[in-house]
TrEMBL record:
UniProt protein name: Protein-tyrosine sulfotransferase
Classification via InterPro entries: P-loop_NTPase
Keywords on record: Signal
Signal peptide segment: 1-17
Species of provenance: Durusdinium trenchii
Length: 599
């Protein structure tokens, strides 16, 4: 099946493909193309009445119109409003009806409290365009009730038999709310009208690229940055307008993409505070065919390849803290230590030796995603998904992802996560050099080649600038990470202070300054985890005997890496160890390490 440029005819095909009867909802009929032909010669019908009203509501501004301000509720047993209350601005007319409180319960409207009995009807009225006279009850009113809820808007079915000019049959209303509104065909029809009544808003929020391809540059002027700005802008506007932002992934006809869909575009649709049903998938496919035909008429969409998922911003993740570097500097040990704190919890893959892999390695998988898929996360990771257990403090959840400090894109991701505090650990530069160089696969780098990086014939590939913390922290701040969210610590200090340092870190993270569990047992010293590098003795031996000129090159490398580190520790309220203030000459330290290892 190919998604075509035909408008509502395409929707009817999709509904039929899903096995849904196209005309089962008299109170919310599925529209057809000719319903929007407002010229004379057509028999007036409910779909045509809906079409006229939807166009008028959209022209008035949809969810952003001033119609919401005219919505009023009365107090039973009064069944009409005073002339003053029903006075409307020019171009609008007042419509009123009686509404069953049962419907207000389904629609989550507070005015249900005005009725003391299920059969006590509540008057409601609003100023609407004259085109909505016939469709006020089943189209205009549910949209106004929906729009007034803003970002918490829910799916509002038409009231059907739950509304009337003079009376309401309670039995019919109960059946309607219990059965009729749950029909997938009816849900589809309501979603269509939700779109059409605010069409300009939804049309403007289509087509942002929600996933980019790898680029050499991720800077502010790059194509990646432009795509990200567009996607985040559409997402924010959509959420503010009470919509849900979805990613649509698909191939063009004739494309073969074994790695996945060739296109990844964003789309705003009405809010999904109920369930992601097949009706929503139908609406997404319909909107995709319609908008692509307008924006990219030369692209034919393979309907079988279309996949969609609701998207969310990383800032919505319930992550209180993150260890983002420096790799090979004690990050695994720090992660295990913080996890032992009674009020902190580390998320990781249980099989990961380095205590990484949170959310199934989300931060690596979604590196090029501007927004992330909500369905790929456990419910506990989403903002507001769960509250604390009574009488028990909910642990602050954290992650360990050293790659986030290493790259500009990773630092940008941390800037987006505005509620997450950042921990950066580093250690004696000589120890870091040994750990990082010997960890290189498949062939480790040894001191002589490290000192000769860049010379012809040297196969060693090593990034010394990964340890340039001051530049990376400054970039974090320039990207928007507040200074008070960042804490830089030194491994030597943590090991020397033991539990006192853990209490200090817990206090910074907002977990209190306790380091004892519920049993009263005190947390121990910082554990030593992670892989121990092989060939240590050979590394120290070669570094100890390095020619003077090559040793000087490494000294310059260390000076570059330590520049500003004392200031970072001072800002964080951390002690500054001797290895930062007055580092021992590299060769002297290497010779001492070699002797201690040989013993």
């Amino acid at each position: 099946m190919i998604l075509t440029s035909s408008w509502l005819a395409q929707l009817a095909q999709l509904v039929a493909a899903d096995g849904l009867p196209p005309e089962t909802c008299s109170w919310a009929p599925l529209p057809r193309d000719d319903d929007f032909d407002l010229s004379s010669g057509f028999v007036d019908s409910v779909p045509r009445q809906f079409a006229r009203c939807s166009l008028a509501l959209d022209a008035a501004g949809g969810h952003a119109s001033g119609l919401l301000e005219t919505l009023i509720f009365g107090m039973p047993p009064e069944h009409s409003f005073s002339p003053e209350a029903s006075r409307c601005p020019e171009g609008l007319q007042f419509e009123e009806l009686l509404l069953s409180p049962r419907y207000l319960v389904v629609a989550a409207q507070p005015e249900v409290a005005r009725s003391s009995d299920w059969r006590e009807l509540i008057p409601v009225g609003a100023c609407v365009p004259p085109a909505c006279h016939e469709a006020f009850a089943n189209l205009a009113l549910p949209r106004l009730l929906e729009w007034r809820q803003g970002k918490s808007a829910k799916y509002h079915p038409s009231p059907g038999p739950c509304a009337g000019a003079f009376d309401v049959d309670d039995a019919s209303c109960v059946q309607h709310l219990d059965q009729d509104i749950r029909s997938e065909a009816c849900v589809t029809a309501v979603h269509v009208w939700r779109v059409l009544c605010d069409a300009r808003f939804f049309d403007e929020l289509f087509g942002a690229q929600v996933r980019s391809l790898p680029k050499d540059s991720l800077g502010e002027s790059s194509e990646f940055a432009e795509h990200q700005k567009a996607a985040l802008g559409h997402y924010s506007t959509c959420k503010e307008g009470g919509g849900s932002y979805v990613g649509v992934y698909f191939n063009a006809v004739g494309e073969e993409d074994p790695a996945g869909a060739g296109y990844a575009l964003g789309m705003c649709i009405p809010s999904l505070h109920t369930t992601y049903s097949s009706a929503v998938s139908t609406i997404v496919a319909w909107r995709l065919g319609l908008r692509m035909a307008t924006a990219y008429p030369g692209v034919a969409i393979d309907a079988d390849s279309v996949r969609s998922a609701e998207l969310m911003h990383r800032n919505e993740l319930e992550i209180g803290w993150a260890i983002i570097g420096l790799g090979r500097s004690g990050t695994t040990s720090l992660a295990a230590w913080l996890d032992s704190h009674p009020n902190l919890e580390l998320l990781s893959d249980p099989e990961d030796h380095f205590r990484e892999g949170s959310f199934d390695y989300l931060f690596r998988r979604s590196h090029l995603e501007h927004l992330i898929r909500r369905d790929e996360l456990p419910s506990a990771a989403r903002a507001g998904s769960a509250g604390p257990v009574r009488g028990r403090r909910t642990p602050l959840v954290g992650i360990k992802e050293p790659n986030l400090l290493r790259s500009s894109r990773g630092r940008q991701i941390m800037a987006e996560m505005k509620r997450t505090k950042v921990l950066i650990i580093f250690k004696n530069w000589v120890d870091w050099l040994k750990s990082a160089a010997l960890f290189i696969r498949p062939t480790p780098c040894f001191p002589r080649n490290l000192a000769r990086i860049g010379e012809e014939g040297n196969d060693c590939s090593f990034a010394f600038d990964e340890a340039h913390l001051f530049e990376k922290v400054r970039d974090l701040e320039q990207k928007g990470v507040a200074r008070e969210r960042i804490k830089v610590v030194h491994l030597d200090t943590l090991r020397a202070e033991g539990p006192a340092a853990l209490r200090r870190l817990g206090a910074f993270l907002g977990a209190g300054n306790r380091s004892t569990g519920s049993s009263g047992s005190s947390a121990g010293a910082m554990p030593q985890e992670g892989e121990v590098a092989e060939d240590e003795v050979e590394f120290w031996e070669e570094l100890c005997g390095l020619p003077t000129e090559l040793a000087r090159r490494l000294e310059r490398r260390r000076s570059e890496a330590l520049r500003g580190c004392d200031e970072l520790l001072r800002r964080s309220g951390e002690p500054i160890p001797e290895s930062v203030l007055r580092p021992v000459p590299i060769q002297q330290e290497a010779c001492q390490r070699m002797k201690s290892k040989i013993k």
